[in-house]
Amino acid sequence: MVQIEQIFPSLTWRIRHEAMYPDMPLDSVKLKDDFDGLHFGLYADHKLAGVVSLFSQGDVYQFRKLAVLPEYQKLGYGAKLMEYILDFCKIQKATALWCNARVNAKEFYFKFGFRETEDTFFKDGYDFVVMEKEL
Question: Where's the N-acetyltransferase domain (predicted)?
Answer without folding.
Answer: 1-135
